[in-house]
Amino acid sequence: MGEADHIASPLPAEAILARIRALKSATSITTIRETIAELGETLHSDGAAGDSHEVEFLLARLDQVAASRTLERAHYYLSRLERSFSQVRTNGVNDINLNRWQEYTDILTDSLWLIERRDNSGVHSADYWGNFIPQIPYQMMRRYTRRGEWVLDTFAGAGTTLIEGQRLGRHTLGIELNPAVVEQARRLVAAEPNPHHTVAEVIVADSCTLDYRALLAQYGQGSVQLVIMHPPYFDIIKFSDDPRDLSNAGSVEDFLGRLGRVVARAAEVLDTGRYLALVIGDKYADGEWIPLGFRAMEVVLGAGFTLKSIVVKNFEQTTAKRTQKELWRYRALLGGFYVFKHEYVFIFRKGHSREKRRGG
Ligand SMILES: C[S@@+](CC[C@H](N)C(=O)[O-])C[C@H]1O[C@@H](n2cnc3c(N)ncnc32)[C@H](O)[C@@H]1O
Predict the structure, then answer these.
(1) Does 260 score more than 60 pLDDT?
(2) What is the rounded CA–CA span in Å between residue 149 and residue 223?
(3) Ligand 1 centroid, distance to 39 Cα (angstroms)
(4) Atom 15 of ligand 1 has which residue's CA nearest to it?
(5) Is any atom of ligand 1 closer than 6 Å to the C-beta of 232?
(6) How far is the CA of 130 from the centre of ligand 1 (A)?
(7) Phi-psi region of 302 (alpha: psi -120 to 50; beta: other; left: phi over 0)
(8) What is the per-residue pLDDT across 161-186, written as a single tens digit (0 to 9) for each?
(9) What are phi and psi of 57, to 5 degrees?
(10) With 0-12 CB in 10 A as exposed, 13-18 as middle and 19+ as buried, what is 133?
(11) Tens of pLDDT along 38-92?
(12) Ligand 1 in contact with 144 (CB < 6 A)?
């Protein structure tokens, strides 16, 4: 179930809800099964429950009721079904209705993401070397924000987060050092429809030194509800000649120090209890695997965050690398290492866990 479907999807006809309620007072499982069979036929024939997601969901749940072995079990499933159509229950940081959790088939909940193709719909394109696939900000915003909330991307690049935010009805602010890339992001955002009339602004600035509070104040905001960070993976891709660019850091330590400054600034404006997603990969240099991802993770943990998940995502090889695939395989066999095929999405929550607060 996509967010757009969720927004557009009407509740089933009151008549159906009334039938479910009436079923709850049935005193025999046979009556329940017969009524469900009739109801199923009606749903199949005229789509009375609204869009196809609704109908599918309802039919699956009704099947479950009909398959119950006991009347008590059937009543239990009917009460649950009634709640799923009449009440919304969320975890407070997103719009996912937990009473209908089975419907959100597009939301990933496993820590291994094997995503074969980037989403190239709308204005998204793979043109900007080093951008992330739109599915990453999509997943983060669906899981960790509600509609109308504010998202900060401290390394906005060509605006992937902003485009997704605009589609999903989240306000987004991006910070990006390279003015030419900011122009590109603005062009893309302007070309994407803005159905929810949200803000999607990217500014040219150094995210290590910018005054984040002043930036938010320009939009009448004191805080954000999600931070997304997709920094350079140290010097793997040189994004510019600007010495302030994190890809021009003098060493791993220097890179981590700068990243720490961005994290500290972002933490100041992120609401407590809300989330920060860090997307980063590792590096191999001078015969050594440098665990940039885990080093960066430690930086965020040091800033008062709790680690919620480490997602390992398959890594799309760049075109240049693909043509050299055989060469890399040879080098790996010779050098005793493995060729990179993954990167990380680290997910943190601002604030310490209950155990840590208790001193455990
Ligand atoms: C990995 S890319 C981010 C790509 C982005 N997620 C997208 O989908 O287009 C990292 C970006 O950080 C920018 N950058 C590097 N140092 C920066 C700094 N100090 N302040 C702001 N942006 C910076 C680079 O110019 C580059 O565009």
Answers:
(1) yes
(2) 10
(3) 54
(4) 245
(5) yes
(6) 9
(7) alpha
(8) 999 999 999 999 999 999 999 999 99
(9) -60, -50
(10) buried
(11) 888 877 776 544 556 677 778 888 999 999 999 999 999 999 888 887 888 999 9
(12) no
pTM: 0.86
Among 118, 155, 280, which is best to mutate for testing ligand 1, by the most ligand atoms less than 8 A from CB? Answer: 155
348: Cα separation from own chain's centroid: 13
Find out whether the beta carbon of 182 lies less than 6 Å from any atom of ligand 1.
no
Whether 196 has a pLDDT exceeding 80, the answer reads yes
Residues in CB range of 125: below 8 A, 6 or more apart: 188
CB of 132 sitting under 6 A from ligand 1: yes
280 CB under 6 A from ligand 1?
no
Measured from the Cβ of residue 109, the count of other Cβ atoms closer than 10 Å reads 9
| Rounded Cα distance, 231 and 344, in Å | 12
Q: What is the pLDDT of residues 80-98, one digit of tens each?
A: 888 887 888 999 999 999 9
pLDDT, position 354: 67
Report residue 5's pLDDT band, with 50, 70 and 90 as the boundaries: very low
Cα separation of 86 and 220, whole Å? Answer: 35
